[in-house]
Amino acid sequence: MSRETGHNGLLHNYRELRERVDRICREIETEFGAHLSCREGCDSCCRHLSLFPVEATALAAAVDELPPARAEHIRARARRATPDGPCPLLDGGSCLLYAARPLICLTHGLPLLAELDGAKSVDFCPLNFKGITSLPGNAVIDLDRLNTALAAINALFVAEAHADTPPEQDRITIAEALTKKF
To answer: pLDDT tens digits for 143-162?
Structure first.
């Protein structure tokens, strides 16, 4: 099934998850905006990442919806990207697909609760939340829970979208998502 003809309906679960996460991020940004340094131009964390097929498809669909010249500009940048370089969507300190950026980009820099070596801890960009000694629970995103939901949505997407031919790889780089049919 090509992404142009049939994936929009299959992306429903991902888009619902993304809307929920976006809403949580906006609430955190509204409440703690004065304590956030992450904003346009703050791009040192913008690396060339790999995505689950569902997110790669959603990103590719976002490019497909752009005016042709803008879409080709993004695809040309993706064709020149290197795996260990900056994100191919990063142009002059701004994300060319900011409204459709992957979940990892959406939540980056915000307080994330994760388990590491059996201990749970909250981590966020060291430039953010200076002077704040504690955060309320509603200002912290449970990364393990988010990743579990994303993995389940991806598994369902792959089962439905690629029932005849499973994808060749479990993860797809941003550049591959923007330049190849998968």
So the answer is: 999 999 999 999 999 999 88
